[in-house]
Write a structure and sequence with these properties.
The structure holds 2 protein chains of 2 kinds. Chain A is an all-alpha fold. Chain A has 8 helices and 1 strand. By secondary structure, chain B is an all-alpha fold. The chains are: A mainly alpha, B mainly alpha.
Chain lengths: ~220, ~130
Amino acid sequence: MAIEPKGIAKKNEQSLSEMFKELGSHPVPKHARSYMYCFGGITFLLFLIQVITGILLAIYYKPTPELAYESVMFIEQDVWMGAAIRSIHNVAANLMVIAVLMHMFRVIYTGSYKPPRQLNWIIGACLLIIVLAFCFTGYLLPWDQLGYWAAVIGTKIMGSLPWLGEQLLLLSQAGSKITGYTLTRFYALHIVILPVVAIVSMVIHFLMIRKQGISGGL
Amino acid sequence: MERDQKLSSLESDEIPFFPGHLLTEVVMAFAVLGLVFILAGVWPKELGPPANTIMTPSRIVPEWYFLWLFGLLKIVPELLGLFLSGLLIMGVLLLPWLDRSNNNTLKGRRKILMLIILTVCFMIVLSVIGVKE
């Protein structure tokens, strides 16, 4: 290739064009072009929507009991496109749970959880739990009546676990009841901790599929 | 040249990622994006009354994906409910080891598939119980 600037290519180094060629000609088995196989990708797309709308909401949201409800009200009524962004965040969250479940049922249907992909199944199942944790922590953030009491009941259920329950209750509520500390704790989980854990898990999930290949069809 | 060689080395039941498959992905992405926008218009997220930390609302129904747990805890003692949902989570995580069949056809995996279908049906029933007063 004449147009490429001369580099100091070492052994085992790929030029850019070689890299793109390899990516572009990576084989996709024909059975995997069925619509049944689209839900994993859709989940990832929905995750990207959640990241973008979530960042936009975080710009105006205030995570304190005094200001949370007011700031959500402000987003709804005064921020340009605020109500739309919040609705999209909510719809995409629900669709994400559906997409993860559909993806899971497809993997069960085609038996793709079997060795050698058993580790990727476990990471996938953990990602489902992470998605549900996103939903649970996000629900409290508006500090409305529904969200508040859902958090009360949810943490109480965790608290009734044997052995660990009491510690879990204190840890999740940041004390013995739902307060501003619970709100900031849920907020940190929702916008920092869970996203980091989710992204790392997704990268492993994708790399393993890339390395091990899409499973054979039925 | 190199690309042609690579393409010809593809098996007959494979296609290259670019451009055919990528195009399919992009089409799907736009379809999903359209669906999200339409649904967000149809079901705008409303903001209920602010939290009242003293007064419990008269009726609390969780989001649909937690309804099965809500229904379960309605009909069995709390500890048993927690045990059963713990069992479900363990079962999901350990599915590759629970399925002892060594072929991948639907017939060969009949037992585990029946178990999964039964579990899902049971969770749907529990969700209905969860919604009811």
